[in-house]
């Protein structure tokens, strides 16, 4: 039932919001240039890697050494608006259709984190990752990594169709009020395991 619901809901969303997707793509091309999509390898079910798609929200500005500038310097006002409206997540509907992701589940994080998860935290990969999840409606990027992982594991151990519907409804509410997009002192979320005060590196968007 979960897979069928994922397919039907994702296809309907793409059809209904196609004008919004096309307009967003056009504006990104004009304001940020190519590519329109941000693509990155992320671990999915059982840690298997897949290409995650998001709308691009940052420039590719680099320093004198050719290194990408920190996120907060590359995130434009337009990019902030795209994130505030959660439009950057829409391309993941195609990930859902492909079977890489589900609508509901733990968010797919960076592949480098696979090496530092505890056995308990690694349980988040026992299900397909989701566009939204239990952690996202309970704080999103405004809670700590430890809290986020506890919520992810709780979902894995208590998942049900009714719970998924509840999460989906509450996600829509969160999006409408733009709640929890950023963590304190970061434009998104500091890297897992990052304890220094240096600026977070590129491509850590959740």
Q: State mean pLDDT (0 to 100 scale).
A: 87
**What order do the SSEs take from the amino end to the carboxyl end, as H and E?**
HHEEHHHEEHH
Oligomer: single chain
Tell me the total number of β-strands.
4
Structural class: alpha+beta
Q: Number of folding domains?
A: 1
Characterize the biggest β-sheet. 2 strands, antiparallel
Q: Biggest sheet, strands in spatial order?
A: 1-2
Rounded radius of gyration (Å): 17 Å
Percent in strands: 5-15%
Q: Give the % helix.
A: 25-40%
Number of helices: 7
Through-space gap between termini: 27 Å
Low-confidence stretches: 195-206
| Large-scale geometry | globular
List keywords for this structure.
single chain; 206 residues; alpha+beta; two-stranded antiparallel sheet; 7 helices; 4 strands; 38% helix; disordered C terminus
Topology:
Elements: H1 2-16, H2 18-31, E1 37-43, E2 49-55, H3 71-74, H4 77-84, H5 92-98, E3 102-104, E4 130-132, H6 145-158, H7 161-177
Parallel strand pairs: 3-4
Antiparallel strand pairs: 1-2
What does this structure look like?
The strands form two sheets. A two-stranded antiparallel ribbon has the order 1-2. The chain is globular, with a radius of gyration of 17 Å. The chain has helices at 2-16, 18-31, 71-74, 77-84, 92-98, 145-158, 161-177; strands at 37-43, 49-55, 102-104, 130-132. By secondary structure, it is an alpha+beta fold. The protein has one domain (2-177). β1 and β2 form a beta hairpin. It has seven helices and four strands, in the order ααββαααββαα.
